[in-house]
Amino acid sequence: MAKFLRRVLVQNFGLKLISLLLAAGLWLVVARDPLAEVELKIPIEFHSVPENLEIDSASFTEAQVRLRAPGRLIHRLRSGDIRAEIDLAGVHPGSRTFDLSSRNIHMPQEYEVVQIVPGQFQLSFDNRLTRSVEVRPRVTGSFAQGMRIAQVVAEPAYIRISGPQRRVEAVEAATTDPVDASGTMGRASFVTQAYVPDPLIQVVHPAPVRVTVIMEKAAEQEPAH
Known about the structure:
Blueprint: H1 2-10, H2 13-32, E1 35-47, E2 53-55, E3 62-70, H3 71-76, E4 83-87, E5 94-99, E6 105-106, E7 112-117, E8 120-136, E9 139-140, E10 147-155, E11 158-164, H4 165-169, E12 173-176, E13 179-180, E14 187-192, E15 194-195, E16 202-203, E17 209-217
């Protein structure tokens, strides 16, 4: 029995000693670097959106994730190291509920997901629609007494917008950033941008809009008798 124990202990003694030292070193590292947690807001990325379909909801574009890892790794974590991905392949117009779990979180393997908020969320989908709408300039300013705006011309007069069908159909016109035409006496042109307030509608091929303001003398009122 004594020979057997001696043989077990002596055989490959060098390798066993190295393994023991490595295990002890690892234990010391872990003991000196306790686990820590951190909460991050991360973007939700949507992949495989079907052709000619639009997301008709802007409610959930971020998730709050709580992670656990050794403290030294927590301090090294950057926001770009972690993201959430949702696969939209096969969705159709209407509403659908999605689960958001650790399987959707892409991150370095040393980290553990403790909590995700929200755990579920709902998105609405609609067919994509593209159409032209009128550009209505916004003109502000103070003018000389007796002068008034006679005409405002936008070039181009129409722009094309694209987005979820029901939202695009509800748009009456696009508007421009405010144009301050203070002090204009005859005609003045300004370069600005046109937009639609709905964040889910995009301007197709956005380009500067030239707004021309034409002034005229206000008609004098005849004195009352």
